């Protein structure tokens, strides 16, 4: 963009007016990836992303000065939001700020997604449950196993653990699918096979930790994770959130939490096999569609 490009522009997004600012601001310095490119990514990925955000209160991870700057989590919808941004006020038990309720953003249309991207909300995190039209929390509809490698373990070891989880779930008659975290690890998902998803996930994690003690741990203690993969079953706690599929991550490069095939998981031999940038994910979706949930 030229130096005389206006700092603020107003665009029409499906009938909404969204003000965009500082589009040339670099948010990923290592790759020169700008805010304008972040907005472009979220606009183009919206057809497959929005269905996975529908009816789920979103927790934002904002990086106003880029991935190398200070960042913050934001649960409460910003007060300066446009009047058309839908929010949902929900009870917030155990809030670290002592709030009884949180007024979450509900991302159910493209304009809201573009508005959030303009706020440098690079990461979008969601729970494994949805809310009804009047704000009632529904039972969890998804089960998630969050696989976190302890160095020197990497996503390669996570892939091996994901395969083991798949076998256990298959024995229980439960289909599952995988995505990268966009960071160091990956996640395995399934449609909730039991009402108490947290207890089910815990039992699977503990079983695999007993069977594969050299590869897997199921406890939070970081001292036990060196060279192993922690199966974080606690992400099924209704107070927890997990990065949404197709969300950007605030890493050195504009990596994405990317749905992958089981063939890709099985064939993973080096870290780069399961690392995908925004451009690569757009190409994947164009050729293969949405792999999440399939």
From TrEMBL:
Superkingdom of the organism of origin: Bacteria
Organism: Lentzea albida
Official protein name in the record: Bifunctional non-homologous end joining protein LigD
Cross-referenced PANTHER family: BIFUNCTIONAL NON-HOMOLOGOUS END JOINING PROTEIN LIGD
Domain DNA ligase D polymerase: 34-292
């Amino acid at each position: 963009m030229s130096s005389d490009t206006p700092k603020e522009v107003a665009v029409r997004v499906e009938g909404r007016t969204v003000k965009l600012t500082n589009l040339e601001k670099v948010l990923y310095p290592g790759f020169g990836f700008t805010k304008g490119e972040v907005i472009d990514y979220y606009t183009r990925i919206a057809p497959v992303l929005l269905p996975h955000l529908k009816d789920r209160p979103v927790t934002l991870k904002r990086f106003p000065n880029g991935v190398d700057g200070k960042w913050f989590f934001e649960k409460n919808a910003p007060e300066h939001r446009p009047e058309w941004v839908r929010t949902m006020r929900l009870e917030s038990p155990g809030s670290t700020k002592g709030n009884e309720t949180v007024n979450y953003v509900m991302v159910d249309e493209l304009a809201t997604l573009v508005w959030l991207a303009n706020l440098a909300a690079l990461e979008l995190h969601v729970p494994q449950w949805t809310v009804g039209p009047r704000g009632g929390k529904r039972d969890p509809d998804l089960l998630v196993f969050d696989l976190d490698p302890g160095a020197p373990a990497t996503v390669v070891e996570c892939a091996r653990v994901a395969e083991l989880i798949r076998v256990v779930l298959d024995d229980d008659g439960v289909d599952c699918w995988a995505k990268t975290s966009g960071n160091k690890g990956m996640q395995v998902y399934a449609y909730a096979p039991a009402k108490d998803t947290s207890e089910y996930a815990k039992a699977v994690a503990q079983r695999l930790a007993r069977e594969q003690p050299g590869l897997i741990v199921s406890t939070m203690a970081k001292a036990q994770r060196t060279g192993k993969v922690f199966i974080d079953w606690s992400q099924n706690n209704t107070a927890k959130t997990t990065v949404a599929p197709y969300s950007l991550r605030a890493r050195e490069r504009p990596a994405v939490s990317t749905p992958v095939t089981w063939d890709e998981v099985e064939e993973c031999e080096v870290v780069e096999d399961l690392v995908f940038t925004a451009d690569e994910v757009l190409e994947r979706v164009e050729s293969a569609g949405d792999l999440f949930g399939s």
